[in-house]
Amino acid sequence: MKTLSIAVVGSGGAGALTTGNLLLEAAARLGCYGIQTRSVGPQIRGGEAAAMVRLSDEPIDCISDRFDIMLAMDWNNVHRFAPEILLDENSLIIGDPAEGEVPPALTRSNPQRREVAIGALAKQVRKGRANMIALGVIAEVIGLPDAAVIAVLEKQLGKKGEEALLSSLDAITAGRAAAAGIEPRRLPVNGSAGTAKWIITGNHAAGLGAIRGGIKFVAAYPITPATEVLEWISKALSRTGGTLVQAEDELASINMILGASFGGQPSLTATSGPGLSLMVESLGLAVSAEVPIVVIDVMRGGPSTGIPTIAEQSDLNIAVYGLHGDAPHLVLAPNSVTDCVATTQWSVFLAEALQTPAVVLSDQYLGQARCIIDAPQTLPLRGERLLATDAGGERYQRYAVTESGVSPMAIPGLPGCQHTADGLEHNPIGTPSSTAADHQTQLDKRQRKLTQFDFGDRWADIEGDGELAIITWGSVTGAVREALGRLRAEGGGGIRLVSIRLLTPVQPERFAGALAGVKRVLLIEQSHSAQFRHFLAAHYRLPEDIEILNRAGPLLFRAGEVYDRIKSWSGV
Amino acid sequence: MSSATESKLFRPDVPRLDGIGDLLAYALALEVEATERYAELAELMATHNNRDVAESFRKMARVEQLHVDEIRKRIEQSRLTDLPTAHFRWVGLTSGPESTDPADLHYLMTPRQALELALINEKRAHQYYDTIATSTTDPEIKALAAEFAEEEKEHVALVEAWMEKYPEADEDWDRDDDPPVLQD
Amino acid sequence: MSQTAEAAAPVTLTPNDYKSNIKPIWCPGCGDYSVLLEITKALAALALRPENVAIVSGIGCSSRFPAYSNCYGFHGVHGRALPVATGLKIARPDLTVLCTGGDGDGFSIGGNHFLHACRRNVDLTYIVMDNQVYGMTKGQASPTTDPDWDHVLMPGGTGTRAFQPLVIALASGANFVARAFSGDPAMTTDIIIEAIRHPGFSFVQILSPCVTFRPDQREWRNFVRQAPVPETNDPSRAARRIMSDDGFNLGILYRGDRPPYRISRKAEFEEVTAIGKEFLV
């Protein structure tokens, strides 16, 4: 696998993120895979920003260990990005001499340095902008042809008119000229150049999965980093005959989707940790009343307000255990940006099939990373409920005790099947009941829905074999997968990857099968208290020889450090 | 309990009746409402384990049902068509003249207290028909209203006789040593 | 006595068609029994089929309402009835959606939703059986309780001004504001009929005595009166009236003409497979 990583930084509205976007899209046109993340200062406008673009000739789902190129339009507060933009002696820093010295935090690893008078060049071009000079410089260094750059510029700037486009092209030409002497670092383009690629974020991918799964109603309360799911799906719903309503808070949004789903429409909301905390009471209501809903939690650093702009896998506990009472429900986690489509779609399918709530644990990294991917597969998974058609001459039993545990659901409007969906414990008809027998029967039935359902192979990704296994989940999977790929390329095999997609209901038999013959296990997760490890220990049989690599956010796992850890752990 | 009912609710007004059909329609609505109300109150008291009062209300419901049946028969015999069937409004009353206000109930009330409520209803029904009979100029309406008034008077006597069988409520009739139960 | 044969269409449904066979747990004497009667009468008068009506509630005595009806019902968690009803109505505009509950559920834990439901003006009817007390947890002060009402939780009273639901509803944008008394079935039924008919968010406060924890409220029937002035569509007049009355004026106090929440759903829409092309580079 060949990769090329580029960071573009700047402050005060310099437009570094736009340069990153254009770069990613131009590379996609050439057939590259890639991933773009960003890091920003706390200011709402004018803050320092870094666009980090990693390009590859193979699909990637992990940020870079090191950067080949760092271009800085200025050095304001750039030191804050030093832990994320790792440089070495092969890295190249391109800076503007007019902006002063390169901060020491960036030069400790002794990277190569080149100077380009970015600011001055921008002034020489009519309406020239520094970030377009920067794009020209990078395009020249990485060998990005003009055709690809012009195509994306036309798409991005088309609305701003001919003048903006021409001034941008002039700036890019000026940047290219200024970079003429810099040693090139070539784009990793593979043989698939020309096959159509998608650029998508995990948040948009989750939205797409929801639409594909049949979601028709969304209630929305904005929260970082989940808002883009809601904004994107608003437009998609308006095209597919659905509706979105903005709620007054998360308590309202989850209850609105309960109402809509009770009305027969597959319904969803998206939030992050603080919102999920507010929603748990009503998740329990969805379990008891057996009303299917999907809640996407784009996890961020917690507890409390925590760190809203970074990823952490620390909502596992609340998603699995947050509900009071015995409340079996679905918890799923996509393990790549591409997988956000399929896992969200599957979640809608499962929630509808099992008439229970599904929590989808994405995170800020998956949600906000822009990724170049192959077009995601279309899956034949569309949410469909078991519906009552009539009471068959009998008194309709909304919570009829069935072998599968799933009871035919009557939707308002159907004559003869009126009932009350209830959060109070009830008998099969739905009448409130506090008898031991009714409680036991309904608890059993709700549990049975989940334990008897055949979830198939989709419950986890299992790759490779051998006596060693790495067990992980969610976004961390990308780094683990890449590290194992690197080991395999070096001839080191014999390590399995188990990435669990279906967290609850737990799948003990499948898990035992996945671990058959495994003697040692390494667990990797992004949580300070090792929530995943405790979860596994509570529900699964694990070998005695367990190691764990866990860390809180905001520093994401990178393939290189995971590779190092696997090597030292496995002795491969 | 009942004093409030009397003072507030017992204010019959003279209805405008355009024929015997109107009177029958009113009478039917009045008796049906009374019957249903008694039946509901009987169930309500049974739910709260006051079987004696539940039985008293059931008995009253049966008495009123006889009236309903009788009026229905008259309507049938009279071959009247298109009787007014829509939603009735009782001017100056919150319910039909012969219906008990559910707010007058207490879960520990005695049969005698329940019959006191029934007595008010019967008196009110009597006065209602009597007012019609004395104020109308239509001889047919007058005759029928007078007949209904007479029947209600019989009911008054009947209820009074039943009441005699039950003692007055004790002073602490509403005593309950247990506190209310917590629900949701 | 007069009678209005106002419904032109033949009425084939009776109030009993809207009642379930489940026995209410309410105390004998409770005003909610009458409200059950009044709502079922109103539904019968409107000739709405029970399967096309949904009644949504939260937690509390009056929130037990849906199970006692023969309509579709949703008995959710404390304070969240209005969002459930909102989601249901927006998803299913063809249904008649009523929301029932009490003063604690609606004005305390659910207070925020009350404000926003009034603002949003979705075509719902919100019926609050106000008894100025938390009945189901044994009689603590609710938002509408007078500040000096003594209770073991707050001896000597809460010292907190009573919430003014009608004023808040009007100020927040409710399109129909009325007060009724459970003990006056005829008027209450009429008000509920009008509330259901009126487009947008209709709010009906029904004074409904709690004979167990507020036996004093049995006297309400001697205090209530028909509001001395007719209804208005002028919010400022309605505000003056509502803010200066003693809480016992009954009737429709405000009937506005604000257009209800617009539910935009295209009749013709694209296939799901058409979605996502924007991501293609």
One letter per element, helices H and strands E, the order of chain C comes to HEHEHEHHEHEHEHEHE
| Rounded radius of gyration of chain A (Å) | 26 Å
Number of strands of chain C: 8
As for the number of domains of chain C, it is 1
Rg of chain C over CA atoms, rounded to whole Å, is 20 Å
Structural class of chain C: alpha/beta
| Helix content estimate of chain A | 25-40%
Give me the side-by-side strand order of the main sheet of chain A. Answer: 6-5-4-1-3-2-14-7
**Unreliable spans of chain C:** 1-11
Tell me, rounded to a whole number, the average pLDDT of chain A: 94
Give the overall silhouette of chain C.
Answer: globular
CATH T-level fold name of chain C: Rossmann fold
CATH homologous superfamily label of the largest domain in chain A: Pyruvate-ferredoxin oxidoreductase, PFOR, domain III
Q: How does CATH name the architecture of the largest domain in chain A?
A: 3-Layer(aba) Sandwich
Instruction: Kindly report the spatial arrangement of strands forming the biggest sheet of chain C.
Output: 2-1-3-4-6-5-8-7
Oligomeric state of the chains in view: heterotrimer
**Secondary structure: helix percent of chain C:** 25-40%
Largest interface, per-chain counts? Answer: A-C, 68 and 52 residues
The general outline of chain A is globular
Task: Give a quick account of the main beta sheet of chain A: strands, pairing sense, barrel closure.
Answer: 8 strands, mixed
What features would you describe in this structure?
The complex is a heterotrimer of chains A (572), B (184) and C (281). Chain A has helices spanning 16-29, 104-107, 118-124, 130-142, 146-157, 162-178, 202-213, 227-240, 250-262, 273-289, 316-321, 337-354, 364-368, 436-451, 477-489, 508-514, 531-539, 559-570, and strands at residues 3-10, 33-40, 49-56, 69-72, 92-95, 112-115, 197-201, 217-220, 243-246, 267-271, 293-299, 330-332, 357-363, 370-374, 420-422, 460-463, 468-473, 495-500, 502-504, 520-525, 545-550. Chain A has 572 residues and is α/β, with parallel strands linked by helices. Chain A folds into 4 domains: 3-178, Pyruvate-ferredoxin Oxidoreductase, domain 3, CATH 3.40.920.10; 199-370, Rossmann fold, CATH 3.40.50; 386-453, no CATH class; 458-570, Rossmann fold, CATH 3.40.50. Chain A has an 8-stranded mixed sheet. The radius of gyration of chain A is 26 Å and the shape is globular. Chain A starts with a strand and ends with a helix. The model of chain A has no long low-confidence stretch (mean pLDDT 94). Chain B is mainly α and 184 residues long. Chain B has a single domain (14-164), classed as Ferritin, core subunit, four-helix bundle (Ferritin, Up-down Bundle). Helices cover 62% and strands 0% of the residues of chain B. The longest helix of chain B has 28 residues, at 20-47. Chain B is elongated. The two termini of chain B are 29 Å apart. Chain C is α/β, with parallel strands linked by helices and 281 residues long. Chain C has one domain: Thiamin diphosphate (ThDP)-binding fold, Pyr/PP domains (Rossmann fold, 3-Layer(aba) Sandwich). Chain C has 9 helices and 8 strands. Chain C has helices at residues 31-45, 65-68, 81-91, 103-109, 111-120, 165-172, 185-197, 220-223, 235-244, and strands at residues 53-57, 72-75, 96-102, 125-130, 176-181, 202-207, 225-226, 249-255. In chain C, strands 2-1-3-4-6-5-8-7 form an 8-stranded mixed sheet, with helices on both faces. Classes of the chains: A alpha/beta (572), B mainly alpha (184), C alpha/beta (281). Chains in contact: A-C, B-C. The interface between A and C is large, with 68 and 52 residues.
